[in-house]
Structure formats: structure tokens, C-alpha cells
Amino acid sequence: MVRLGVRRRARVWFDGTMDRGAAALIGWLGLASLVLVSVVTGLAALFAPKETYADGGWANVLWRSVLRTLDPGTMGGDGGGPVYLGLMLVVTIGGIFLVSSLIGVLTTGLNDAITNLRKGRSPVIAQGHIVVLGWSDQVFTVVSELAAANRGSRRSSVVVLADRDKVEMEDQIRARVGDTGRTRVVCRSGSPLKRTDLDLVSLDTARAVMVLSPAGDDPDIDVIKVLLLLNNRPWPAVRPHVVAAVQESANVAAAKLAAGRHALIVDADDIAVRMVVQSHRQSGLSTVCTDLLDFAGNEIYIRAEPSLAGRVYGEVLGAFEAGAPIGLRRADGTIAVNPPMDTVLAENDEVILIAEDDLLIEVAAEPARVHGDAIVLVPDSKRAPDRTLMVGWNSRADRVVDLLDRFAEPGSVLDVAAPLAPEEALAAQRANVTVGHKRCQPTSRRDLEAMELGGYQNIIVLSDDSAEPDHADDRTLVTLLHLRDIEVNLGEPYSIVTEMNDDGNREVAQVTKADDFVVSARLISLLMTQLAENRHLYEVFADLFDASGAEIHLKPAGDYVQPGAEVTFATVVESARRRGESAIGFRRRDDADQPPFYGVVLNPRRSRLVRLDAGDSVIVIATD
User: Fold this and answer.
1) How far apart are CA 299 and CA 526, in angstroms?
2) Angle at the Cα of 363 (from 362 to 368), degrees rounded to 5?
3) Do 358 and 301 meet the contact criterion of CB atoms below 8 Å apart?
4) Mean of pLDDT values over 359-365
5) 529-562 tens-digit pLDDT
6) Which of 45, 341, 442, 601 has an alpha carbon within 20 to 30 A of 71's alpha carbon?
7) Three-class secondary structure of residue 204 per DSSP
8) Residue 120 in 3-state DSSP?
9) Per the UniProt record, which residue ranges are transmembrane (predicted)?
């Protein structure tokens, strides 16, 4: 073992302290300044006692020496012998070097600190915030909705961690989202796939964590890895819940296993397919879902109402003047959406309602009037087989066909209009739908006219996955214009439901007068935001989006009340109750292309008078 000398060890120790950065440099420069001033003051007291006494003693000389190190001009007024003046000159020149070095170190350290802040590498100190991991176009919807949800809060914050430049992220959020009100948005640069970078966003004190799917191929792989990292990190006793969405249904099981019991996993693929299929059967569904999921209009609340304890669910439906009941939350936490009408509300049960705000929920002092003579009792009638045309083919098309087969009446026909024939879909044996293929370029007017569109009741236009999202929407717009113009020329109406990638294109697309638009990415973003704010809504939405549970339906208004009759909305609620359904609103056909609500009215007051025509719809929660 090599032994180092004292001088060598001292040099190694000194070098080690210098490696500690600006703080060590400032300390050494301060110590050197103190030593210089102390030595000069001591020498002045020994070799120039007369001048030292004349200047007020050694303490005053010490103070004036400090001033000389900071300001060389202070020496201009000195007097005394050569020794005293020489000592003052030494402290002044030494001060020039030491203080200049100190200023340089401080400036460099300050610049480094500002640079690190701009890089977004400093830890966040926050509590009760929501963490967003990852970056995609969904982040703008998420931030906007979280800001809207916390508009009434005194202080809230959203922390975004993504492998991008901090300033660039902040600029994009500012440009796309605008003013976030009282919600503070903090961005940090780092990869959600690295454990050390996750420590930047104060996960332990967060209220919820949202994992966004990145752009590109196989986004679920990154989501699952982030979920693994989150599930395996040490958490405090009270930990935030995690919300994530996977794009492919086949990855849901793996994501749930990786995430553990504290995470809520959304099957984005299944919801997108279900919205397309159900909207084709009942146009306006995606508009209803958007209204329920965003924070601008009506939302779903879970509220205790002890005054209703002991009453059956059918009576609860008519007990509110403002607020539309859709189910019950039992004392043990189980959810029952649209339970049987004779279900008793126990003492500790809660009511699940649709309302504009929890403060606006109002129990009626007296039940609203019901116009019993206007209620229509329609026996269940079997729907006739229909013919549907699906324009285009993408990664979700197989699922769409399978779900269409489940909902369609036996003998129904589905023709796929696409450049290439989907061989597997054509070869599969189906119970209710016969699938055919017609060669067609979706944007070609000539090819669409050759489809003989007048023979179809419904048309579904799928987005082109092979193109960029904006370009795919542009192609969809052209296809919609052709389809609607062909309908006008034929004089034979058909419904059109289409996929869109960007909700910003929806208003532009209204000129096509399509019956409904399904913007699946926005719906998933809104759903994740709702779950981040209230994890107890997970079971409610799971039931609403599950084919085996109660779902949202838009049914002909003429099946509930006499067309054209002026009745209270309580009459519509009562008519739906007799059929085992929960009525939550209506949609006017004449306003179906008018933004922002597209004819949808949710949660009207029970005493409000409405006049529904034959082409209008009643929005209900029902099991069929």
C-alpha cells in the first residue's frame, strides 16, 4: 500500500473539496478573504500602531480593510507611514483578485442554476397535485380539463414529466390550452421509463398519476413499463391512484398485472369500437358521452341523500328537481347502474346522479306534474334486418364487424368498401351479419356512386390509420361530402357515423351534416381525467361501457310520449321508469348539427315543459 505524504494528502483533500462545485469555491474564497483581512489588520497593529490608533483601533482597521477588499477606491483617502500604506495596498490588491473571483463564481453558479431550471431537472415540491407521465396530443385535453375541473379551487397544480425540452412543452401547452386559471402547470424534462426521473415530480405527495400513451408504434409497451416502475417503487401508506389507457385490448391483462390493484386501466380500443358501433345504431351517442365526460357541462356525481332512505329506486328517479339519477352506490362500495325499480335505497347507500355541479343537485319539495295521458306504452318490437356500408378499413375494423354481428338482427348485411378485400373478415362465419366486399377508394366520387348507396340504412366511415392523423381527417371530410351530396341527389336518407382523430376538425365537418362523429382519442382523454379526479367513478363507467351492463341509449321519443305534446320532463322520466329505464335527457333532431351540444340536452329540470317530435330521441340508461 502506497503511503502519501502530508502535502500530497492535503492536496488530494483540497482537490476533493473543489470538486463539490460553486459552494466550495465560494467557501474557499470567503476563507481566503477573511485570512487576508485578519493578517493585514494584525500586521498593522504590530508595525503601524500609531496609524492604527489614529484610525480608531484594530477593530476599525479590520472593518476598513473589509471595505477596501470590496471597493478599491476606499484607499484613496488613506494617510500614514509607508508601512501602513503598504499594508492597505496589499489588502486592496488582494481584494481585487478575491472579490473578482467571488463575483465570477457567483455569476457562473447563478447561470448554471437558471440553466438547470430551464432544463427542467429540478425536483418539484408540491402536494395534492396530479402527475401526467408521457407526452402526446392527449396532454392538451388532459391539462385543459383538469384546469376546468379545478376552476373553483384556490390552488391546484398539474406536473407533466416527458422526455422533451421543458420550455418547448410549456410553450406548446400555453399555445394549445391557453389560460389555465388557478391551476399551475409545471413541466419537467425526463423519461417516465427511468426510476430516477420519476423522483423529479414528487409522486409520493401526488393526488393521482396519469400515464399517457406515447405516439408511435407499440405505445402499450412503454405504458406497461411505466406501470411496472410505479408498482414496484416504495410508496407511503397513503398512495395516489394511477390511471392509464392501453390501445390494444390484448394488452389489458398485462397492464393490469403490471399496475397492481391501485391502478385503473382503460381499454381504449374497446371503447373506440363500441362508440362507433353503438353510434351507428343510435346517432348522437358520442356527443352524450362527451358531455358526461368533460367538465364543461354535466358530470356524474355520487351523493349521499339520507332523506331518500327506505324508498325504492323507481321513486328516487322522480325525487329530484335538478339532477338525473342513474344508479346506486351501496354501502359496501358496489355499483348498481339502473338497478331494478323496486331496489330499496338503504340508509348508507348513495345515489349516482348526472348534474351540472354537485351544488346544483336539488331534491324536489313536491314531485313535478306528470302528464299521464301523454305517456305512450309501446310493446317491445323486433327490429328488422338492415344493410350497413362500412367505408374504409383499419386496425379496429375486425372488432367493429364482430360487435356489429352481436347487435344486428339476423339476416343483416354489412358491405365493406375498401381498396383491398379483408379476407379473414369475409371468411369468418357470423351468426347475424353477412359480410361482403366492394372495391372502392373512399375519396373517389365515382367509386362511391357505384356502391348504390340508396339501399343502405347506415354508413360507417372509418379513419385511415396508414395516414397522418390530420391528413386522415382531411380524407374523411372529402368522403363525407361525397356521401352527403350523393344522398341529396338520390333522395333516399341514410345515417352517417364517422371516426375523427382531432376534435378540432369536428366543427369544420359539420358542413357534411354527418349524424355523429366519434373522436376516440378525446373520449379516452376525458375519461382518464374524470378517473384522475374521482377514482370511484371507474365502476360506473365500466358498467356504462360494458355491453353486458346498463348502457346509454338514444331511443325514439315517440316510444315514450305523444309526438308534439307539451309535457314536463318528469313525464318522460315516468314513461321510462315504467319500462325499467332511467331517463337522463333528450336530443332534438333539428339541432343535431348545431355546436356545441348538437341537439343534446342532459339533465333538464323535471318541471321543464318539453315538446318532442317523432324525429327526436329520449336519452336513457337501459340494459337493452
Assistant:
1) 11
2) 105
3) yes
4) 90
5) 999 999 999 999 988 887 677 889 999 999 999 9
6) 45
7) helix
8) coil
9) 21-48, 83-110
